[in-house]
Write a structure and sequence with these properties.
The protein is of the alpha/beta class and 584 residues long. It is built from 16 helices and 19 strands.
């Protein structure tokens, strides 16, 4: 009898010893969140509990040496990218903790994953797709743990930090990809090619009843068929959330005028430094989920969990058709297109009035700051009738290059590194004799007065114009006819809001390095005036019509320097060129 009892104990020990799949958050009633060691343990625990359906792996290492963990889950058995492609399964990437203080996605994601695997949520949905779950993107920021990292957020008790150990904001880094963490994420994306990416956040802002916002692109931008799918996806998830008791919004609830509810809201298309501004350019679906920071942590985790489950259900139902549309968009983006390309978007002046679930409030001067402040009464719900601008139109458009871009050899290394990060096609060229190209010269320029993410940004105006230029061996040709042609233009068009130029990568070309001393310019000006009557007439006309010019000694001398043979003709010329035919 004693032997039988011992054997029974031995056979039940593995089950008894299996680590739990619950989080610190769940065990605390969602008042706390765990440290990153919990993510490491849970990643292994899920893989051990469900060896046929879950794989845990590292996809990068942070600057502080922490492993970046991802879980891949599918009851189809497709647990690697090749298997997913062979079976034609759509991949969904759910990403938590890009801002590690906004950590709802980590705890909600683990909860949803367990329920999906146990059949408690969306039974059978993981047969039809692959879920790629990154619980914490910003790992080093997550471990900068404190009770006051998010003072305008209700729970958990302690949380991580917004930025990385290098003080980079990962959700400003998708296109420029400075951070090692972002470079690892892009490699993960290139390997798995997810159909849909869901980026989980908690917002800031005023006090109101709405508890979650769901924003999707393509919706206002990108491939027309994918825009229709984006709206279908967003509306279905919002409907599911409403059925479960949430008050979801389809736009980011940030007032036009800070702290003034009467100013209303403006919708937009985010630039590609953001997740939802980036993935539509790859012809893929991107969703930004923002729970409202004034809601308690249990409420926020619940609504985030509901969102993740709804996404999985929608992909299970429609993923195959949506994946075919994404592949068709890849093909379409690789074809010649005579229409202008939008580089940025903005809301038009068209305004509509919406009902918004807010609270009664007053606005009065603060005796602390002296500023006009809004004070909300959460005991008194109030329906606000406020303006919304959501007629989104292209703000900057440019003609597309006929063939692509040329990057001279002196900039080839830095540009090639960025192109590789985004899995873009390009190749090196032999020396080119004089070639018909288009070059861009800035007619105005403005350097940023303060740094942004460690860069001095540059804004220019100007146009492309025809030139003939010779290039030495080692220049790059970046063809426009490739699936991610929109990403190519976002990087290389000088007017694009997150282009390499805009982030200051070519600032040297817009800084004057040579000059003419004033005493020389005085003598040169007199010689030019004496020898060129048309120039004298233009100078005198400018003096008469432009008071600022007439009052500025330096501007008057610069008038002549710019017309002299010593002037640097390469100043303010963007070094990347466009071509209308393949230079090979």
């Amino acid at each position: 009898m004693r032997l039988i009892t011992s054997l029974l104990l031995l056979t039940t020990l593995p089950a008894l010893a299996a680590p739990p799949l619950t989080t610190v958050a769940e065990e605390s009633g969602f008042t706390r969140t765990g440290r990153y060691s919990e993510v490491v343990d849970l990643c292994d625990a899920f893989a051990a509990r469900y060896p046929a359906s879950v794989r845990c792996f590292d996809f990068g290492t942070t600057p502080q040496g922490q492993p970046m963990k991802a879980l891949v889950a599918s009851t189809s058995g497709a647990l690697d990218p090749l298997a997913a492609r062979r079976q034609g399964l759509p991949v969904v990437l759910v990403q938590g903790g890009i801002h590690a203080g906004e950590i709802d996605g980590k705890d909600a994601g683990f909860l949803a994953l367990r329920e999906l695997l146990e059949g408690e949520a969306a039974p059978g949905a993981l047969d039809k797709q692959v879920l790629l779950f990154v619980p914490v993107f910003n790992v080093d920021g997550h471990e900068r743990f404190s009770a006051w990292n998010r003072p305008n957020q209700r729970g958990p008790v302690e949380m991580g930090w917004r930025t990385t150990a290098q003080n980079l904001n990962l959700n400003r880094d998708y296109l420029k990809a400075d951070a090692p963490e972002m470079q690892a994420m892009l490699a993960l994306v290139n390997t798995w090619d997810p159909l849909a990416v869901v980026d989980l956040h908690a917002t800031n802002g005023a006090q109101f009843e709405h508890d979650i916002a769901v924003m999707v692109e393509p919706l206002y931008a990108g491939d027309p068929a994918l825009r229709a799918i984006g709206r279908q996806w967003r509306d279905a998830v919002i409907a599911d959330l409403a059925d479960q008791g949430s008050l979801p919004l389809p736009f980011y609830p940030s007032f036009v005028v800070y702290d003034d509810p009467a100013s209303g809201f403006t919708d937009s298309v985010a630039p590609p430094r953001f997740s939802t501004g980036y993935f539509w350019m790859r012809n893929r679906l991107g969703m930004l989920v923002e729970t409202h920071s004034w809601r308690t942590y249990p409420e926020r985790v619940r609504s985030t969990r509901n969102t993740v489950v709804s996404v999985i259900e929608q992909i299970a139902e429609h993923g195959q058709a949506w994946q075919r549309a994404a592949r068709a968009a890849d093909v379409a983006a690789s074809q010649p297109d005579p229409t202008p390309a939008p580089l940025s978007f903005a809301a038009s002046d068209k305004v509509r009035t919406i009902d918004f679930r807010g609270y009664a409030y007053t606005r009065e001067p603060s005796d602390v700051s002296g500023a006009l402040m809004t004070r909300y009464d959460e005991s008194t719900p109030q329906l606000w009738r406020i303006p919304l601008r959501d007629d989104i139109q292209p703000a900057i458009t440019v003609p597309r290059p006929g063939a692509g871009y040329l990057v001279p050899a002196e900039h080839a290394a830095q540009v090639a590194a960025k192109l590789r990060l985004h899995d873009l096609a390009f190749h090196e060229l032999p020396a080119l004799g004089e070639t018909d190209v288009q070059s861009f010269r800035a007619s105005s320029k403005a350097f940023g007065a303060t740094p942004v993410e460690g860069h001095q940004r540059l804004t220019v105006t100007g146009e492309w114009a025809d030139e003939r230029i010779a290039l030495g061996k080692g220049a790059l040709f970046v063809p426009i006819r490739q699936p991610r042609s929109r990403v190519v233009m976002a990087l290389l068009e000088p007017l694009a809001p997150d282009s390499l130029l805009a982030w200051g990568r070519f600032n040297n070309h817009f800084e004057a390095k040579e000059y003419m001393e004033a005493y020389v310019a005085e003598a040169v000006a007199r010689e030019m005036l004496a020898g060129d009557p048309a120039l004298r007439e233009a100078f005198e006309k400018r003096l008469a019509e432009d008071a600022d010019f007439a009052a500025s000694p330096s501007a008057r001398l610069d008038f002549f320097y710019r017309r002299h043979a010593s002037y640097d003709q390469a100043l303010d010329r963007y070094p990347v060129l466009r071509v209308d035919s393949d230079p090979r």
